[in-house]
Amino acid sequence: MKKQEKTGYPEEQGARSTKKATGKKRMNDGNVHQRAYEIYENRLDKDLPGDPESDWYQAEEELFNDYF
After folding, report:
1. Domain count, the chain
2. Structural domain span for residue 35
3. DSSP H helical ranges for the chain
4. DSSP class of residue 37?
5. Does a structural domain hold residue 43?
6. What's the pLDDT tens digit per position in 4-15?
7. Does residue 38 lie within any of the structural domains?
8. More confidently predicted of 16 and 27
9. Can you tell me the distance from the alpha carbon of 14 to that of 37, in angstroms, rounded to the nearest whole number?
């Protein structure tokens, strides 16, 4: 098992997604946080370089493309 490193992410708080009146999901910080944490875990498992800020930007980009 790998040693846990400081992530820069607060503990998971059970982020909820929101929906517009049309029924489509709306991108929010909870969604971005959840995806950034998934990116971080994947990066850690594969021993890839990176930092929380780049994980966050990647998550925003992915979610933006998914929602719009």
Report:
1. 1
2. 25-67
3. 29-45, 52-67
4. H
5. yes
6. 555 665 544 444
7. yes
8. 27
9. 12
Strand partners, 18: 26
| Chain segment 51-67, per-residue pLDDT in tens | 999 999 999 999 998 87
Is 49 inside a domain boundary? Answer: yes
Q: What per-residue confidence (pLDDT) applies to 24? A: 55
* Token digits of residue 12: 């998971």
Contacts for 10 with CB less than 8 Å, ≥ 6 apart: 33
Q: Judge contact between 43 and 56, C-beta under 8 A.
A: no
Q: Which two tokens stand for residue 67?
A: 């929602």
Using the Cα atoms of residue 11, residue 16, residue 31 and residue 34 in order, give the sign of their dihedral.
positive
Per-position b or e across 23-43, b if 16+ CB within 10 A of its CB: eeeebeeebbbbbbbebbeeb
Tokens of 41: 């875990």
